[in-house]
Amino acid sequence: MIEANAPQDEQANNPSEHLRKLNAEIALEKILLDQLRAEVSNVVIGQTAMIDALIIALLTEGHVLLEGMPGLAKTLAVRSLSETMNLDFGRIQFTPDLLPADVTGTMIYQQKSDAFTVRKGPIFSSFLLADEINRAPAKVQSALLEAMQEGQVTIGEKTFKLPEPFLVMATQNPIEQEGTYVLPEAQKDRFLMKIKVGYPSLIEEQAIIRSQIKPEPLKPLQKIISKKDILRLKALVKQVYLDEKIEKYIVDIIHQTRSPKLKALEPLKPYLTFGASPRGGISLALVAKARAFMEGRAFVIPEDVKLMAVPVLNHRIGVSYEAEMDSISADDIIDKIIQYVEVP
């Protein structure tokens, strides 16, 4: 097996041989990921896009925003994934009266020792489910932002590192307006992807009902991968080859979200208030690598970029009031850009 930290000069001297070995190793690791996906799918029926997004986030150590109606297994998917990895799981139900200390923890005075000690909050988990994240006020969002960006939490005068891996899986209801706060653009940009969770198909919904009304209890999920496996897989994902032409393709897409230059995309200009940041391009490259890895490939193809562009960019562009009046969504704009940007 090739080491995840193989010397750069060895890769440069014989890139084709390195790619061949890497492809063989990724093909073996894909079996492990397929087992992981199948185990979660035993509990979360359908919703394959959501499950794949959560696994991609794990491989790239990014955060995911899940948007969908209640009852679509968003919480169940996150909890199930954590169970298959034997990692700590924390859940916070966000409410308008939530305080930053309820998320991060606080200093507690101990009368016996006449000293303050730290009581850590639920954020000190490898998997953190932030349920209905848009119900929390600005101070709570600010505390969460530090954790998402820096991987650390400040309590009093002390700073604590969060466990590795650390992933925030946040949910929000797209239709409720009362008692909600619009997420700051800076925080939305920290989410690797925004996944819109839809309703199951007729067959899937029948299977969901059948699984929930059976007299025998559901079997506990098996532990598929360990923390050591996750670190190894993350290192392999970084080695997936991204050609310079694919890099240019990603940059072209990002720039078209800011100021559409192509003649076919000029009608989109009134619909855009701002485009994706450089972090959006970095995220799209990382996610494309992870998708290639999940497909058992050691290299990225344009299809990886196309398929992941919407979930990576749909929360990173500003849609104008005129677009809302014309029923044009961020997804529609990105789809149009993908349609006309030249594919390498």
Q: How is this structure best summarized?
A:
The protein is of the alpha/beta class. It has 14 helices and eleven strands. A five-stranded parallel β-sheet has the order 2-5-8-1-9. A two-stranded antiparallel sheet has the order 3-4.
Describe this protein with a few key phrases.
single chain, 344 residues, alpha/beta, Helicase, Ruva Protein, domain 3, five-stranded parallel β-sheet, two-stranded antiparallel ribbon, 14 helices, 48% helix
Structural description of this entry:
The strands form four sheets. Strands 2-5-8-1-9 form a five-stranded parallel sheet. It has a two-stranded antiparallel sheet with strand order 3-4. The chain has a two-stranded antiparallel ribbon with strand order 6-7. The protein has a domain at 240-344: Magnesium chelatase subunit I, C-Terminal domain (Helicase, Ruva Protein, domain 3, Orthogonal Bundle), CATH 1.10.8.80. α2 (15-41) packs across α3 (48-60), α3 (48-60) packs across α11 and α12 (302-313) runs antiparallel to α14. Helix content is 48%, strand content 16%. A hairpin with a 2-residue loop joins β6 and β7 (158-161). The protein is globular. It contains 14 helices and eleven strands. The protein is α/β, with parallel strands linked by helices.
